[in-house]
Structures are given as structure tokens and as C-alpha cells.
Amino acid sequence: MTSFGGGGTDLVDWNLAVSTAARMTRPGPEVSRDEARAAVAELRRHAEAAQLHVNGFTGLDNGAADTPVLVVDRPGWIRANVAGFRELLSPVMVRMRERRSAVPGGAALTAVGSKVTGVEVGMLMSFLSSRVLGQYETFAPPTAGLPARPGGGRLLLVAPNIVQVERELAVKPHDFRLWVCLHEETHRTQFTAVPWLRDHMEGEIQGFLKESDVDPGTLVERFRQAAQSVTGRAPESGADSGRGLVDLVQTPRQREILDRLTAVMSLLEGHADYVMDGVGPAIVPSVAEIREKFTRRRAAGAGRLDRALRKMLGMDAKLRQYQEGERFVRTVVEQAGMTGFNKVWTSPNTLPTKEEITDPEKWVARVRPAAG
């Protein structure tokens, strides 16, 4: 098993989080060895083919030759995401650990608390590991058995979840797998074709975390409550039911950063949906059926997952991001064409604001004349 370091000296025992998640995670749908091999091989072929389709539709050169495509099982997804989580949270965890070490008995409290939180985080990751179909993991560095492009970045396709959903929806496996790959390849293209995007988002997230100035125990407790809410181990009513990490750590500057992050996440998710639906009809014969069934499933199953994301990250529900972001992209392309829309990738200054996501004409009026 990959070691993530830290152990009891961190506020989250990441190794315990991984082992807890791996122990609790269900293996996925029953498939024969031949079926499993065939699914993995097909997903790899579709991921490669999707690069050309996404590039042709968006006009973006994905430059993704050095970005690994990993077809993983649920434990593999957990290991990869815990590595990314730990990387992103490292600066704030260091600050909080230093503060707690200065308190009498703080080291002992940290050691005990890190294990409790590690278990809770592991439970959260176990739950999510059965829900995610694919993911462009932007920030995680290479780890043992999980390569990444220089500086971080890899595309994950979670084979058992894809097979499970295609069976639940009763859709054609070949079509559904390609459809999923189109969405995830769009995310990979966003970050590989736009070199500044990763550093910009990491800077925003780190800026948000650096602004936090709360008691370490309080922040860890909120993280634990967020994990409990998504795993169904916490009540959904009461004084604390609507409170999360961001409710405690937000400052005026954090609110500004959060608005920008919400806008860019809406853009990225909406763009992926728009591309997937734009490319789909030409290469996925049953795309209309897939979209209809998947949209119903997404809406019906979004509640608990979205609540957890809101509690932990303070962002709007992911379902709303898909809807508002897709509407923004579609409106801008209709008014300015794909070339005009692609000016969104010019610099951080041309990214839409949270207000512009819901009012695309404002973005067109602001960016199009200045961009030429």
C-alpha cells in the first residue's frame, strides 16, 4: 500500500484514511476476468479516441501526450485522491499543527484526533469511490503505482463504477464508455491545453486555505462532520446541520476567492457537458438515450454527495454547476462562436465571474471587444 507519510503528526492520519476506505469499499459489480480485461482495454481505446474528438470540436490542442490515463478500481481511486487531498491541504495542516504543538498536551491531542479524523475521511472516500465514473486529477503528484504528468495531473477512469452505471441505466456499454471518456477527456484537455490554469487554481485554493485562522480542533471537527454527513452517520437536522468548514473560515477575502473558484468550476463542468453533447451525436449512436437516463440519475442521486461537497468546499451544488456552466458555454458559443468562446482560456482575467456565469452576455460584452 502506498504510504502518504504524516501519521499521527498530521491532523489527518492519511494512511489510516486509505486503509479504512479500502477496508470498507465494496468491490463493485460482478464481472468475469475476461469481461474486466475487455472493459479496461475498451476504456483505454476510448480515452485515446476521445482526444481527437475533443480537439476537433473545441479547437484546443490538448498536448496530453505526457498525461497518464489510468483505468483504476475503487481502491486505486481512493489512493490517488488521498494523495491529492493531502497535497492541497498540506500548507494549512502545517500551520495548524504548529499552532496545536504550542498548546500544552497539543501533540497528544493531535495524535488521537488525527486517527479519528483519518477514519472519518476514509469513510467519506469509501462512499465517494463508488460514485465517481472518471476524474482528471489535477494536483496530485506521482505516487507508487500512480504516475502523473510533470507537476501533477492524470486522468482516472473508474472501471467498476462505469460498468455498474451502464448496467443500472440499461444502456449500450460501448456507447456509454465512450460518452464518459468524452467528458473526462474534456477536463484533461482544459488543463493540458491551458498551461496557466492548474497553477491559477492551485493558487486560488492555497490563498483560500491560507486565509483560514481558526482553532485547529474546530476545523478538524467540521471536516469530521462533513464526512459524517455524507456517510449517513450524522443527523441532518439541528443547529449544526447546515454548517461546514467554509462557514467557520470565511473572511471577506475568502468569499472573493470562493466566488472565483465557484465560477471556474462551473465553467469547467459546463464546458465538459457541452462538449460531450456536441461530439456525442456523431460518434455515440445512443447518446440521446444515455443523456436522458443519466440526467435523471444525476438529479435523483445528487443530494447526499452535493451536501458533502458544499460542506467541505463551500461551493454551489455540483448539479447546479453543470447546469449553469453548460448554459454559459452554450450561450457564448451561440453569440461568439467556438473561437470567441475560447478566449475564456486566454488568462485568469478572461475567466467568467460568478455573476457572468449566470449572465453570459456580460462576459461577451467584457471580453470579446478587448480580445479582438
UniProtKB/TrEMBL annotation:
Which residues does UniProt call coiled coil? none
Protein name per its UniProtKB record: Coenzyme F420 biosynthesis-associated protein
NCBIfam families found in the cross-reference section: DUF2342_F420, putative hydrolase
Q: Which domain of life is it from?
A: Bacteria
Q: InterPro entries in the record, alphabetically? A: CHP03883_F420-assoc, Zinicin_2, Zinicin_2_N
What phylogenetic lineage does the species belong to?
Bacteria, Bacillati, Actinomycetota, Actinomycetes, Kitasatosporales
Q: Which Pfam families match?
A: Zincin_2
- Could you tell me which SUPFAM superfamilies the record lists for this protein? Metalloproteases ('zincins'), catalytic domain
